[in-house]
């Protein structure tokens, strides 16, 4: 009986370790899949804003629109900032336009964004920069794509004296000038908190682990009892 009970305990321990190992592996896999899925969404969001900016810049240039109080909200950077605010209010995703040579101080890059901009400057073939970091104690996915100066951008970003008057008046300390075609202008930056999503995954896996462990304990116990009953019956059975 003691040997059987010891064996039972070993089996329960092994089962618990196996279930725990599987749960940890599942959490890691699901967490990786979650991050990949969010990074894919970030890419789509960033590309959407990038193409919107290009469309606005090309439309204003083609229509030869004047840059004044009426048309300023159609300027790519201005429109992008307003869209970013609305997007954050609806989703909690932070959507920004950043540049080392910023015009609006609100577009000044943080440390992670500055590293990304430096990497984009070094490698013109680099199409994205991503990572995970803590912001105010919260785990956040960071994703950036580069923005380069197109022909339509030069009306507002070439020599300082040629920049539209409304921009010169609004931004006397403007740094976003003296660009030429093909220069790195900056980047579109997306930041997504993932603590809550990972916590939900962990909670579900913990629940599944507990239920599975209890089920396996009952199964092993049932097998253990059944085996003991069978052994006892065979021991009591008189020899033929």
List the helices and strands and how they pair.
Layout: H1 2-62, H2 76-91, E1 94-98, H3 111-122, E2 129-135, E3 138-148, H4 154-157, H5 165-170, E4 184-193, H6 195-236
Antiparallel strand pairs: 1-4, 2-3, 3-4
Helix pairs in contact: 1-2, 1-6
Describe the sheet with the most strands: 4 strands, antiparallel
Q: How many E-type strands?
A: 4
Provide the low-confidence segments as ranges.
none
Helix content: 55-70%
Strand order of the largest sheet: 1-4-3-2
First-to-last CA distance: 25 Å
**Whole-angstrom Rg:** 30 Å
> Count of DSSP helices?
6
Strand content: 5-15%
**SSE ordering:** HHEHEEHHEH
Going by helix content, strand content and strand pairing, the class is alpha+beta
Oligomeric composition of the shown chains: single chain
* Mean pLDDT rating: 83
Shape: rod-shaped
Structural summary, described in words:
The structure is a single chain. This protein has 240 residues and is an alpha+beta fold. Helix content is 59%, strand content 14%. It contains six helices and four strands. Strands 1-4-3-2 form a four-stranded antiparallel beta sheet, sandwiched between helices. Strand 2 and strand 3 form a beta hairpin. The chain starts with a helix and ends with a helix. 19% of the residues are buried.
């Amino acid at each position: 009986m003691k040997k059987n009970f010891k064996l039972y305990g070993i089996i329960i321990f092994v089962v618990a370790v196996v279930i725990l190992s599987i749960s940890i592996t599942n959490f890691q896999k699901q967490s990786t899949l979650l991050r990949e899925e969010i990074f894919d969404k970030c890419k789509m969001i960033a590309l959407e804003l990038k193409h919107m900016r290009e469309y606005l810049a090309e439309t204003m240039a083609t229509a030869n629109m004047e840059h004044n109080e009426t048309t300023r909200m159609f300027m790519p950077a201005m429109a992008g900032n307003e869209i970013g605010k609305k997007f954050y209010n609806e989703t909690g995703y932070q959507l920004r336009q950043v540049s080392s040579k910023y015009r609006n101080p609100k577009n000044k890059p943080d440390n992670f964004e500055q590293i990304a901009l430096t990497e984009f400057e070094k490698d013109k073939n680099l199409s994205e920069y991503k990572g995970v970091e803590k912001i105010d104690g919260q785990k956040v996915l960071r994703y950036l794509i580069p923005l380069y100066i197109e022909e339509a951008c030069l009306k507002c970003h070439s020599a300082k004296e040629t920049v539209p008057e409304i921009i010169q008046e609004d931004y006397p300390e403007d740094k976003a000038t003296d660009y030429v075609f093909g220069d790195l202008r900056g980047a579109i930056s997306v930041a997504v908190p993932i603590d809550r999503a990972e916590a939900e995954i962990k909670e579900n896996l913990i629940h599944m682990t507990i239920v599975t462990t209890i089920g396996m304990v009952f199964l092993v116990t049932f097998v253990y009892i059944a085996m003991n009953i069978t052994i006892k019956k065979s021991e009591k059975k008189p020899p033929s």
